[in-house]
């Protein structure tokens, strides 16, 4: 039986298969992997999954869709019910995509230290973004204390609005989204050839879910966490530099979703290295990405040059979001 309008790549009335997607939700995931051979010609290879190509322009679209669907399945979230989340921006943008399509009113709290472009993006999709003043950091540099302030405002609004709270930092569906999608996609797309996986850690959903899946497929796989220099709690070091460029990552604590069983080591990167490789990804590969993407690639290069991994290893990482979320804004927007 032919589907109405022949959506989702099914056979239409004229017998021709089309590739029309039913909604933006069908654009989430199945992002391509690109070889960064111009930036790093070898030995070894850096393969980057282009997560900025999700409809919300970041990897967080995956967990946004998965967490909402799980909440609907469990009955914790009712159809059309209000949703609230505390975000550094990317989770909020992903949730805004999902809630727009599914018809859920969405409220987000975010530190004013996170880039204004993220708030603009979320509100363009119909969400309400409450920007919370910083208590410690500066614009572009958000600390754990700033996040806690945004969280406190979010908790106040949950009660006021009677909204379902996503709670990404403690929601197991966050990591499960990457175990079910990101990991399997990487394994398939590389032809089952993954020697090393590298990722920054914010909520730890991406790292935990992806690393768990890949290690099940390849027990010899090495997984490394990327941390900003001076804010390396997973490595077990004292926090000496809470301010850094990695928005949504490196908050100075070990996230509840993080599992040490899936980690083989850590790599620290400086702000200077992050900027260098963020720029090189653009100049050499033609991809305008954000700071955590620069951190991931900087760490991959470091590993291949350090002798910590085989010199001919295929190192897979993620390009987490678009650089358009970080460009400077006029003072009046801050």
Automatic annotation (TrEMBL):
PROSITE patterns: CYS_SYNTHASE (PS00901). It comes from the Eukaryota. GO terms for biological process: cysteine biosynthetic process from serine. Keywords: Amino-acid biosynthesis, Cysteine biosynthesis, Pyridoxal phosphate, Transferase. Residues 26-320 form the Tryptophan synthase beta chain-like PALP domain. One of its GO terms (molecular function) is transferase activity. Its cofactor is pyridoxal 5'-phosphate. SUPFAM superfamilies: Tryptophan synthase beta subunit-like PLP-dependent enzymes. Belongs to the cysteine synthase/cystathionine beta-synthase family. This is Cysteine synthase. It comes from Papilio xuthus (Asian swallowtail butterfly). The gene is LOC106121374.
């Amino acid at each position: 039986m032919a589907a109405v309008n022949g959506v989702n790549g099914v056979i239409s009335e004229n017998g021709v298969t089309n590739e029309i997607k039913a909604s933006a939700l069908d654009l989430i995931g199945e992002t391509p992997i690109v070889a960064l051979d111009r930036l790093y010609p070898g030995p070894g290879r850096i393969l980057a999954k282009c997560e900025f190509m999700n409809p919300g322009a970041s990897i967080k679209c995956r967990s946004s869709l998965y967490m909402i669907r799980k909440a609907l399945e469990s009955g914790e979230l009712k159809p059309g019910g209000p949703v609230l989340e505390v975000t550094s921006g990317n989770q909020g943008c992903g949730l805004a995509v999902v809630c727009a399509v599914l018809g859920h009113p969405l409220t987000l709290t975010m530190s004013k230290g996170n880039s204004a472009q993220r708030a603009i993006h979320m509100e363009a999709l119909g969400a309400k973004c409450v920007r919370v003043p910083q208590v410690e950091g500066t614009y572009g540099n958000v600390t754990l204390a700033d996040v806690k302030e945004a969280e406190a405002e979010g908790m106040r609004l949950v009660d006021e609005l009677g909204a379902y709270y996503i709670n990404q930092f403690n929601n197991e569906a966050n990591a499960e989204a990457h175990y079910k999608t990101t990991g399997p996609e990487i394994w398939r797309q590389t032809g089952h050839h993954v020697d090393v996986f590298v990722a920054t850690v914010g909520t730890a959903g991406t790292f935990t879910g992806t690393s768990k899946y890949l290690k099940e497929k390849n027990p010899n796989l090495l997984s490394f966490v990327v941390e900003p220099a001076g804010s390396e709690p997973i490595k077990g070091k004292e926090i000496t530099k809470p301010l850094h460029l990695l928005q949504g990552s490196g908050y100075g604590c070990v996230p509840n979703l993080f599992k040490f069983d899936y980690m083989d080591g850590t790599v620290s990167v400086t702000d200077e290295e992050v900027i260098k490789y963020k720029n090189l990804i653009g100049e050499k590969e033609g991809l305008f990405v954000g700071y955590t993407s620069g951190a991931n690639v900087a760490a991959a290069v470091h590993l291949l040059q350090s002798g910590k991994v085989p010199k001919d290893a295929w190192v897979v990482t993620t390009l987490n979001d678009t650089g358009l979320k970080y460009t400077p804004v006029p003072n009046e927007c801050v």
